[in-house]
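To whoever picks this up:

The nightly regression suite flagged 6431_t:CDS:1 as changed. Nothing in the input moved, so I suspect the structure step. Input below, exactly as stored in the fixture:
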Amino acid sequence: MQSSRNAIDISSASVVDLKAELFKQKEEFKQQKAAAGDQPISAASRLRGKKPGTWVRQNKGVGERAKRDQAFLDEVGEPSLEASRIALEKKAKLYDKLKKTGIEDETLAEEILVDFDQYVDEFGRTRIARKSQVPKEPLPPLPSSSNISLEDGDEYQPTMMSADMYMEQERLQWEKEALEELKNPQHYDETKEIRTKGVGFYRFSKDEQERQEQMRALKEMRNETLQRRSLKQNIKDKRKLQIEARMALIRAKKLKTTEAPDSSSSTGTIISETLPSTDDNISTLAESEVREEDNEKAVIDLLASIRKQVVQKK
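Regenerated output under the current build:
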């Protein structure tokens, strides 16, 4: 049993309206069925008689404009359109001819509307085009054996290259370097390691002859360094002997008061015989210091010359 809460209040007027709508639909269906005869009635045929929607309706004046355009085309006629097409084709052929050969007739050059200009492209070919299509920057002339001389290792690089041409040139350069590496002895290549090099890192040349010269120069510098190191060590040893001699003299003077005169004289004689002369040591030290300064200057000059050679090679 339905509750009073869910009950729908239906008035007599609503029932009458519903019956009227049902009767109207039945009459329309009977009319469509009578018009169709034995053919089945589809939903599309039932919607034909209804009012078209907003997206189906055409804008106002579209049909009239289409009629006017068709009337104008009928007035112009097919012969005039064909004549215009032939004239345009003839004009296009004339433009193509002028682009290839140029304008030789002065009268034609004054009458023509398109301003053609002649220029040389990046491949050395003469071209005629509109001024708007001509490159603004003049292209350099192509190299020839008569008017250009390239240095050793230099190659002519065109100013305008596509991405494919540039990649092909890089590939050829890489193959050339790879073949040269295979021919030459293999050495350490610092470019294949991603790390920070130390302070004493030295980049040798890839040229084998120049590499040997650099190694010979480094060996000479190494030998000079060892000589300087041994010289300084000799100076230190001599100074140490001088200090020991002075300390021995001081100790001998202190013992002079306690020991006998004969023993003190014998001690002084022993010290003077065993230790070198102080004057000789001083002169030797002076000569060593002068020689050391000369060696330092020679090493500095050698380093500067090697760096200058490396910069010039690059």
